[in-house]
Amino acid sequence: MWHVLLSFSGLVAVIQLLFLPFFPESPPYLLLQKEDKAGCLKAMKQLWGEGNYQTEFDDLMKEKAITKGTKIMNVLEVLRERSVYPQLCTMLLLLLSLQLCGLKIFVTANLQESIIPYVSLGVSISELIAIIFCSSIIDRFGRRTLLCGGYLLMALILVLLETSLLLSDQFLWLRYCSVILIFLFIVAYGLGP
């Protein structure tokens, strides 16, 4: 019954996708990135209700003044920064260990046992590439666009994955489609959520 559990995560993604457009952008994002003071105050009222948020707004303005001279680092600059190595190692270990959870899907797809570790390694690498790519485009497209697009792609891919796994006994080529869909799911997850 693991495929039902997998489908449930798709249902949750669809629900989040339906409600996400009704939420405002983050006030710090509106003020610090887009420099939209009116939008920031409007988002604060929308998120926290009516009230005076001048103190919070002033704090954000102070943060903006502090970070004004700070250079925003790209992915390669972050990777070269020695002070973040412990956090990077922790994240890499977490990403690699998460891939061990997906081995059951590859066994269900009737892949040869000798290639399953390589496919799992490929999934880890594709997830890492997707996360690096997302961190470089998030400022251009915004979090909301990436979240909506990611959840929409994930829901679509989960439907296709469920279908391909159910029909893989009748059509052998669908087993390989399942593996490709898993790669695409990981990429969609890395780009969005």
From TrEMBL:
<dbReference type="GO" id="GO:0046323">
    <property type="term" value="P:D-glucose import"/>
</dbReference>
<protein>
    <submittedName>
        <fullName>GTR9 protein</fullName>
    </submittedName>
</protein>
<dbReference type="GO" id="GO:0070837">
    <property type="term" value="P:dehydroascorbic acid transport"/>
</dbReference>
<feature type="transmembrane region" description="Helical">
    <location>
        <begin position="146"/>
        <end position="167"/>
    </location>
</feature>
<feature type="transmembrane region" description="Helical">
    <location>
        <begin position="115"/>
        <end position="134"/>
    </location>
</feature>
<dbReference type="InterPro" id="IPR045263">
    <property type="entry name" value="GLUT"/>
</dbReference>
<dbReference type="InterPro" id="IPR005828">
    <property type="entry name" value="MFS_sugar_transport-like"/>
</dbReference>
<feature type="domain" description="Major facilitator superfamily (MFS) profile">
    <location>
        <begin position="1"/>
        <end position="193"/>
    </location>
</feature>
<dbReference type="InterPro" id="IPR036259">
    <property type="entry name" value="MFS_trans_sf"/>
</dbReference>
<keyword id="KW-0812">Transmembrane</keyword>
<dbReference type="Pfam" id="PF00083">
    <property type="entry name" value="Sugar_tr"/>
</dbReference>
<feature type="transmembrane region" description="Helical">
    <location>
        <begin position="6"/>
        <end position="24"/>
    </location>
</feature>
<keyword id="KW-0472">Membrane</keyword>
<dbReference type="InterPro" id="IPR020846">
    <property type="entry name" value="MFS_dom"/>
</dbReference>
<dbReference type="GO" id="GO:0005886">
    <property type="term" value="C:plasma membrane"/>
</dbReference>
<feature type="transmembrane region" description="Helical">
    <location>
        <begin position="173"/>
        <end position="192"/>
    </location>
</feature>
<keyword id="KW-1133">Transmembrane helix</keyword>
<dbReference type="GO" id="GO:0055056">
    <property type="term" value="F:D-glucose transmembrane transporter activity"/>
</dbReference>
